[in-house]
Specification:
4 strands, mainly alpha, single chain, 260 residues, elongated, two-stranded antiparallel ribbon, 12 helices
Length: 260
């Protein structure tokens, strides 16, 4: 059933925002396969879905800082959805999957694969566990897509070997505003992910790689050392959206990095 020309409702806008959050701004177009799929689900044209995503982009503070051109206006509902979920990513991704299941006429358990949820810790509900898993999945998806599926330090372009690394460690991040916030993520290869996680490297306020003295003197073959040290003071490849958050980097500098 076609809804072209009809006013967008809350559920449709949530789905458009969820897709916006995991789509590079430069790839919002009618030819984007995921935009086409969402359009088919909503009974709208790909152009209409793309326009809605551009309307939502109007409220994106990161795009405003970079003077990236978006639509000159957005609706009151667009603003409300952006404000409601821009600091509650886990709820956004979870609700989007529930809405999709409803529109597809499927049980939520099917689309969320709840049968794969392991035995739950005492005191944690099944919904909380599934919500957390959905959030973790879309954190990875959003971070890797923002970095065009390549390591932000080495440029490695093999998603299977990339990790969506938390800048502020997951276990001490706020469940609602930090754990699944794409601005708390970097796309890294496994080696640099581990070095970053253990504090052997960090980023400065200019997004340049800083290497700790704790690793400079560790024995290794000369080729490996030259390769590793070649990235010192190099600026990372910046994402299309969701620039690394200043507060997250400062936390990593102060509490994770082992020092120069």
């Amino acid at each position: 059933m076609s809804r072209n020309g009809e006013k967008w409702n809350r559920e449709e806008t949530i789905l458009a925002f969820e897709l916006y959050c995991r789509t590079p701004f430069s790839k919002i177009s009618q030819s984007n396969k995921e935009i086409q799929e969402l359009a088919a689900l909503l009974g709208r044209t790909p152009g209409s879905v793309g326009l809605k995503m551009h309307n939502l982009a109007h409220f994106d503070p990161e795009l405003q800082k970079r003077n990236v051109s978006a639509m000159a206006h957005g609706s009151k509902l667009d603003y409300e959805i952006f404000q409601e979920f821009s600091n509650d990513w886990e709820s956004l991704f979870y609700q989007a999957q529930i809405i999709k299941a409803k529109m597809m006429g499927l049980p939520a358990e099917d689309i969320l694969e709840m049968d794969d949820v392991p035995q739950l810790p005492e005191g944690l509900s099944r919904e909380q566990m599934v919500k957390a898993r959905v959030g973790q999945y879309y954190f990875r998806l959003s971070v890797l897509n923002a970095y065009h599926n390549q390591c932000c330090i080495t440029g490695l372009q093999l998603p299977k070997l990339l990790i969506a690394s938390h800048i502020k460690p997951w276990d001490i991040s706020d469940e609602k505003t930090e754990r699944t916030n794409p601005q708390n993520g970097l796309a890294l290869n496994p080696f640099h992910d581990k070095a970053f996680d253990k504090g052997y490297i960090t980023l400065d306020k200019k997004f340049q790689v800083v290497i700790s003295s704790k690793i400079k003197d560790i024995p290794m073959d000369e080729e490996t050392k030259q390769w590793f040290m070649s990235y010192e003071n190099k600026t990372i490849q910046m994402p299309d959206k969701f620039y690394p958050g200043k507060a997250f980097i400062e936390y990593h500098n102060d509490f994770v990095f082992l020092g120069i």
